[in-house]
């Protein structure tokens, strides 16, 4: 946990590498998810940044519920 100008900051913005570590996937997989529109990201110059809450929401949306009917 870090503080910046008296505001509590807890790694709310992630790099692609940090998101990949969090999801335990290769960084190229994160880039693919971004290109496919599955994972929201902001492009700042040549790099992407992701909100931790978006990465968590993506992971939550990918949950598999055994026994649940599938769409296919």
Topology overview:
Layout: E1 2-4, E2 7-9, E3 13-15, H1 16-23, H2 27-35, E4 42-44, E5 47-51, H3 52-61
Antiparallel strand pairs: 1-2, 3-5, 4-5
Helix pairs in contact: 1-2
Structural summary, described in words:
The chain is an alpha+beta fold and 72 residues long. It has a single domain, classed as Multidrug-efflux Transporter Regulator, Chain: A, Domain 2, CATH 1.10.1660.10. It has three helices and five strands. A three-stranded antiparallel β-sheet has the order 3-5-4. A hairpin with a 2-residue loop joins strand 1 and strand 2. The longest helix is centred in the C-terminal third of the chain and has 10 residues, at 52-61. The protein is elongated. The mean pLDDT is 87.
């Amino acid at each position: 946990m870090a503080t910046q100008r008296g505001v509590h900051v807890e790694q709310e913005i992630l790099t692609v590498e940090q998101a990949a570590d969090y999801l335990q996937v290769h960084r190229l997989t994160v880039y693919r998810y971004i290109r496919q529109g599955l994972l929201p990201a902001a492009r700042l110059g040549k790099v992407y940044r992701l909100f931790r809450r978006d990465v968590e929401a993506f992971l939550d949306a990918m949950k598999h519920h055994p026994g649940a009917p599938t769409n296919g």
